[in-house]
Write a structure and sequence with these properties.
562 residues; mainly alpha; Rossmann fold; Helicase, Ruva Protein, domain 3; 3 domains; five-stranded parallel sheet; 5% strand; binds adenosine-5'-triphosphate; AAA_lid_3; hydrolase; ATPase_AAA_core; AAA+_ATPase; nucleotide-binding
Length: 562
Amino acid sequence: MYNSQGNNDSDPIAEEKSNKCDGNDFNTQLEIYQQSLQNSSNLASKIILHSVCETKEDCFSDDRMNKILNSAQSLIQFPAAQNIKTWRSSLSKITDPVKMFEKSIPRCEKCAKSQNYNGFDKFIRNVCKCETCLLEDSNDKPEVHTSKPTNNVEQIAREKSNKQKHIGDSKTDINTRTNWEYGTNENTCPQSNLDREEEENKAHKSNVAKITFKTARETFLASNPSAKRVLGVSRKTQGKFVSPMIAAQEKQEKNEPVVSDDRLKHIDSKMVELIESEIIDKGTPVAWEDIAGLELAKSVIQEAVVWPLLRPDIFTGLRRPPKGILLFGPPGTGKTLIGKCIAAQCRATFFSISASSLTSKWLGDGEKMVRALFAVAACHQPAVIFIDEIDSLLTQRCDSEHEATRRIKTEFLVQFDGAATGEDDRLLVVGATNRPQELDEAARRRLVKRLYIPLPDANAREQIITNLLSTENNDLTRQDMAEIAVLTDGYSGADMKSLCSEAAMGPIRSVPLSQIINIDRDKVRAVSVQDFKNALQRVRPSVSQDDLGQYVKWNNTYGQGF
Ligand SMILES: Nc1ncnc2c1ncn2[C@@H]1O[C@H](COP(=O)(O)OP(=O)(O)OP(=O)(O)O)[C@@H](O)[C@H]1O
């Protein structure tokens, strides 16, 4: 059926086989297989080819066999161009597809001699569990046949590029060649040809084995490159013991960020790293519409800081923006939201730190931290430094003040004065406090704009309810929401959020306990007015009227006056 010249013109068996098959169907399958060689994993390709061979075993014409042989060559990933000749000539003599694959199986000598050897099966499963192979597996760095020592992974990568080239060759073969010219046109003695072929075949098989078989470790590392990391450092047999702790430290030192900006030259690189990872806020940007009410505060902020930060060329001289603003008022009224919104509107980097963490968490390093914070912010301009609870940093001086706290405070004032002194600097400090009366005079003087952020009025509360319910299934009308807004006089923005969360739990609580795990999301009923009425019993306002009086008084004395 398939003669050594590869000429099948007069082969009646081949013709008969060809007629038996549905040519289109078979060609489609082959095409899928050939495509899979380029796009799928080797294993996937092998499986596809296996099914092609299995189902169409009795209908291979020579032309189709040519195609399969070409595909098989691509599949096996030739180790080196010089082996192509031998490989093709040996494959061209095989007519039975199963034998053809057997021949292409990378196998050890022991397996090859074994009576029970079922190469095709192992080829499909890509395993060989004989002792020789297991031994080879444990020496996880096989030698390769090139002059330069390389590892298996590099070798495979190189072979992949050879493969691409080879696939191109194969396609040409399919279209233009009917003869296996490499194997048949050689003008040499047949016996010596056979011997040489045998030797070359052996060498080739061992090369294929090295490439096709990967150790478990190599396979694992190929799919998990990060697994290459080891605890501590890797050691040689004669190597000195290195503690993982020291190694980790050294590694950290090596990984230190390159200090590219002069302003960071004298700053502790670990602090820079910490600020960049923990203090720079990368949360969702806040828009003005997200902040309910507070219209006056918003318009002052827009005019005083947002526009100047966006157009520093216009806002010069007397129009130069303040370096710092203070937002004061009861807790949970949206001061942090405003800080975030300023940063988002100015497309600025938002640094958010709580002053109390400087005096507690960073006590001892607080001074350095302040210096580092301003230096990093200067490198990330435009930047907004938001300091929550600024009162705990800039309290009025007293005799009992802790030395460390006093030093942090002094450093803050020094940095604040030194910051944004250049014409092009775009740095804004936003301080927030619930206890403005505790701020010292120096702080008040520096935070030029002092804005009262009061409790939300009825309209703002209604807007907060509307915003929060927009993502929940509810059957509240506008009038219901307005009524709830009236009932929540004295609630802060944060209180309103708690109230809505509590009400949203109503429908869940009405689901019988036995169904809570399996119930369909759509079957949970909508949030109702009654849920809000129940929630109002549980969530009470957190700000007292007495406190409010103090804010109003301070606002009248030091505030912006609205
Ligand atoms: N005006 C508002 N508009 C919309 N939501 C608000 C408003 N005020 C408060 N909230 C809600 O309350 C939450 C807390 O607000 P935020 O942290 O800004 O308050 P704060 O004034 O900074 O509080 P604190 O003084 O306790 O730090 C916000 O995440 C938001 O959901």
